[in-house]
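Today's session is about reading a structure prediction critically. Students often jump straight to the picture, but the first step is always the sequence itself: look for stretches that repeat, for charged clusters, for runs of hydrophobic residues. Only then move on to the predicted structure, which in these notes is written as discrete structure tokens rather than atom positions. Here is the chain we will use throughout the hour.
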Amino acid sequence: MANTPHELAEEFPQFVALMRHLKETDGHFVRLFDAYHDVNRKIHRAETDIEPLDDFHMEDLRKTRMRLKDEIYGMLVRHEPEAETPAA
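Below is the predicted structure for this chain, in token form.
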């Protein structure tokens, strides 16, 4: 499972530094980030037949991943200037 698709660093390469910053400073972002990766891994395991799921559960997981991704993107866009501030 080394090559899991839809990783956030691949989805938002322009925000990698900001994601790192928010993971260190924003507990809500950390919870969203972790939830996204948990759901993404479940989807990947189902898609590769490691842990197959029925269509209903797969669709539900994909909707959850999309919702989390949208919320994460919203936070990244709102906090973008913070990434440009040099760290002390």
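Discussion point for the tutorial: The two ends are 36 Å apart (CA to CA).
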